[in-house]
Structures are given as C-alpha cells and as structure tokens.
Amino acid sequence: MLKKHRVLIIVIVMTLVVMISYSSILNINTAQTSINNQKNGVGNKNEEMDIDDMKNVENEKLDAEILRKQKRERQQNGENVFDANNIQVGLPDSNNNNLLFGNEDDIPIQTTLKKTDDKLLIECLVRASKQNNQLSIEKTKENWFTYMKKISSEKKEKCHYSNQRDYDEQPVRVVRQLTDFQENVECHLPCSSVHQGGAYIDSSIYSHSTCEKSMYETLENVRPYGRKYDIVATTDTKSDVPLGYYSWNEYPYFKKPIKKIHNKDQGLVAAFISNCGPQFRLDYMNKLIAAGIKVDSYGHCNHNKEQRKTKAQDYNGAKMEISSSYKFVMSFENSETDDYVTEKLFGVFTIGSVPIYHGAPNGKKFFPSPNAGIFVNDFESPEDLAAHLKFLDENDEEYEKCLQWKKTGPTKDWMVVMDQLKANGDCRTCIKVADLQRKEVGMVVNKNTSMQLVPKSFTPNDGIVVFIRERNTFWFTSVAIPYSTTYVELVEIFSNALNHKGEIYSANDLWSKEPIIDFKMKDKTIKLTQNQEIEVLFADLDFFWHSKKLPPGEE
C-alpha cells in the first residue's frame, strides 16, 4: 500500500514539473514574439493597433496573396517563372559545383526576402504590381561567362591605368580645391586627395593632360563657361559629382524642437541678414512688419534686436541657438538658382523651427516633408504670407503639423536627396574618375566573386546578365535576368542582390540616367540589355534617427 502511495506521489510531482515547464516555455515564446515584433516595427510602445492599421495589414496580406496567385497561374500556363531563391545564387563551391538552394516550386513572397525587412519589400512589390510597367529584354547570343573570361584575360591600357588595375596597389588620386589633402579617403574604392604632382594623377582641377581627367568644381550652381571638362561638380544634384551644404555630419536633423516663445519681448519671426546687397529680402521683411508681423532682426541689415548671450562658440552656433525658440525664421538665399540651398535652410530644419524660404526655385525638394517649411513663391504677396503666419500662430495644432516630421520621420524623397552626400566629395570624385577610365579601357573585373550572382547553368537562351550597384559605390554585382522576368520580379531581384539598408527607391541606367525602376512612373516599357550597368538607390529612414549622436539632454 505504501508503495502505491509513493508511486502516486511521484506521478503527481512529475505532472506538476511538466506543467510548470510548459508554462515557462509559453512565457518565453510570448516574450520572444513581443521582442521580435518590436524589432520588426510591429505594434507601438504605448498604442494598440487601430482599425485603420488593421485594415492596412489585411490589405497588404491580400495584395501579397494576389501576387502569389498570379505566380501560380503563370506556372500552370507553362511559363518559366522567376524564383528569387533559385536564380540569384550560383557561386561555385570548393569542388567547383554550382551552389543552388531554395528549389521549392512555389515559395511565398515572404520567404524570398533576404537583404531587407520583409514588410518593406512586400510594400515595394505591391506598389510595383499596380504600376503596369512592362519589361522589354533584348535577346542576346553572348555567353556571359565567355565574355567575362575574355575581358579579364585581355589587358587594355591607357597612360597609367588599365582594365587590370589593382586599386589597392594603385589607388585613384585626385587633385581638388574644396577639400583637405588626405592619402586614405574613406571610400568604397581606394582613393587619395593629393597635391598636384607625384607618380601619377587621375584627375585634377589644374592639369588637363590626356592622362588626367579635367575637373571643374564650385559650391554654386554655375556651369563652366568656354571649355569642356570631363567632370563637373556643382550644387546641381544632376552634376557629375553633386556638392552641397546638407552634410549628415554637420546637421543632426532628428534633434527635438524646444518650446517656442512669442510674446511682447520676442517676435514671431527671427531674421539674421548681414549682407545688405540683395534688396528683395529686406523689402520683404519690411512688408511683413507692415502687415503686422513682428520680426526680430539680429543682423546688420534692418537691425532692431540685440543678440543675447549664448553657449555657442561661434556666430552660426549662436544664430541657431537663438533661432530655436522662434516659431519662424527667415531663410532667404543670396541667389535664386535651382539646387543652390545653403545652411540658411538646413540649419533651421535642424533646430526645429519653420523656415520662411526664398531662393532656389526648386527649394521644396529639400523640405523633409511638404509642410516642413513655408515657400515664399507659393504666396501672391507678403501680406498673404503674413496672414498665413498669423493663422499658424493662432492654431497650435496646425503649427505642430509643420514639425510632425521630427516625430514620424521625413519623406523617402528627401532622404534620397540627402543621401547623395552620405559619401564625401573626394570619394564620389574618385568613383566618377574610375568610371570614366573604365569607358576607355574596359571594366576592371572585381576579385570578389561573391558578387557574381549568375548560375553556371545560365545561358543566352535563358536571359541576360546586368551589372547593378548601389549609389556611391564602385564595384558591381552581376545578376541574371530571365527573359520571362516581370517588372515586379525585377524589383525583387535588385533588392535581394545588393547588401543594403532600407527599401529600394529607384534604379537608373548608370550612363543615360534613364529610369529602370521608379515607383512614380506608370504604363512604361523599360528596356534592358546584356551587360547594362545600373545604379540602384535605397531609402533608409532608420539612418535619419541614427545619423549623429548628441550629448545627453540635446536629443
């Protein structure tokens, strides 16, 4: 009898242990799911998903399911349907065998995502599916592997450079005027900014020999006059090497705004104008004042306010510290030229005030959100603009909308413009020089074979091969494009092939700048050809929040 009781007690204890262990596992899984959801951006810290959010999620699931259904129908019709897992891998292993994986016939879209967050790419694919763009892939008879073997074995040279150049041994050397000299520039390509002279020069603002690429550069949007240059670097965002005043290193755009002050001692608008030459902005200021707007003018021109003491160590720092407590700041450029936008605008965005902007006719493309600034050209007169300022001053909710981007982040369009200068000017110059040299002597084959994503079994009967790279990088990744590829599948191929952050924004032919992927174009036919070189742009909104660390209390 005692023995039976012992057995019963042991059974009960073991049952309790199993139940406790199972409960712990459930708690761990629940916690891990919560952590993963936070990492993937699912759910807000203190907010539950509202009805609109739930509808959006359901719509995304529905759109993704439609894409999968279309894929299955094409397969049933006997079409050779693209599979990102199959086509984008083809590296030989140690035994020189082709490495393929993901051989399942119908893999859901989510499982083909490798280089970016699942949700981001699915959103891109859904948008692409609604554009009704078509691919026209030109047939080729050229075997890509034979082509690569040929260009890597046949040496072509000019002056000191060739298609077999080893950039580690012979970095690109450029002579510029808007930079400090630096032997090892931080760059995707070995690069040096040097004095004129030395063993060789690849590009120079001074020399124009046949062995050196001539360069023209200015921090204005002024084209060279009277002669032709190989490389033009201006504030024009479409120039060979765009230059600008909006460096991520200088401006912590994510900095939180401070509380604004508008009372009898402080005006609604701050102005810092010390160059009294351009009369337009002084006249405009006077008309705003006449219309009832109190403008505190700290500069030499129309001076009516003394500058208070600040913690800043220079004039620009003091100007920004003072401006940060104003609702509005006059941001008038010295000239009116497209893309010539200076610290007068970017500094105000950083401190979290609203700029009243006049200058570049296309200046709104530099606004982090459409209503982040007030564009003078949108108003018929200073009086109309004054009425708008009064409206925003009297309606806190409307004014806060101007600063909403500080909480939710900027637009993708703005991020892509800002990211042009993520790589320094020396680096971008070196890449441009190396590209021009490639046009003369042929492609320098990358030693990194992991960037050759073409299956060995891929033939001209299957499709073409194109070269793609992210902006501000030099080396290309080769990718196979089957003839049956759709526009949506092309977006997926490009996104998966490159090691990037953020989501794919656009892709253009490197030389003609013709759009290949553009989520704003519809009903277009995009042409692709064998060995085409394509530059891909990504919008990384996370970079906005982490672009620069600030001291505690200044975030």
Automatic annotation (TrEMBL):
Fucosyltransferase C-terminal domain mapped to chain residues: 266-438
EC number: 2.4.1.-
EC class of the enzyme, as a word: transferase
Superkingdom as given in the UniProt entry: Eukaryota
Membrane topology: Single-pass type II membrane protein; Single-pass membrane protein
CC per GO annotation: Golgi cisterna membrane; Golgi membrane
Listed transmembrane segments: 7-26
PANTHER family named in the record: ALPHA- 1,3 -FUCOSYLTRANSFERASE, FUCOSYLTRANSFERASE
Identification of the protein by name: Fucosyltransferase
Organism this protein belongs to: Dictyostelium discoideum (Social amoeba)
Gene, per the UniProt record: fut9
